[in-house]
Design goal:
CATH topology of the domain at 8-65: 434 Repressor (Amino-terminal Domain)
Oligomer: single chain
Helix content: 25-40%
Radius of gyration: 20 Å
Low-confidence stretches: 83-96
Shape: globular
Strand content: under 5%
């Protein structure tokens, strides 16, 4: 399968398509990578935030190669995949939503509260 990728927003759906084509779940692929399912899910949802090394590691496990081609080449004439770009707004998303604001609850405005949980360790993969 060839997926001409023109924007980073297309990458999550292409990664998901290749993963599903191989018959892998996020948990199964995460296990092969040695990370948690949550870490892989975060990567798949936003691969643009990851390093190229991490992207290539995932692509190797999926048996996927990257080919770069000059614009106007034969690859540009391939049809686009039948997927919507990640993060594309739906008509329902155009309706503004109210943002919940915390009430003062008797606390001074400059007083900060401690985080409920300590930050999690980052996985190195």
């Amino acid at each position: 399968m060839n997926y001409p990728i023109k924007t980073l927003s297309q990458l999550p759906l292409v990664l998901k398509a290749f993963r599903k084509q191989r018959g892998l779940t996020q948990a199964a692929l995460a296990e092969k990578l040695g990370v948690t399912q949550q870490s892989y899910a975060a990567f798949e949802a936003n691969p643009a935030a990851a390093s190229l090394e991490r992207l290539f590691t995932v692509l190797r496990l999926l048996d996927v190669d990257i080919s770069l081609a000059k614009s106007g080449s034969a690859l540009d004439t391939l049809s686009e995949p039948d997927v919507q770009p990640y993060g594309q707004a739906s008509p329902a998303a155009a309706v503004p939503r109210k943002v919940a604001t915390p009430k003062a609850a008797g606390k001074p405005a400059n007083q900060q509260t401690a985080p409920a949980m300590p930050p999690k360790k980052r996985e190195s993969w």
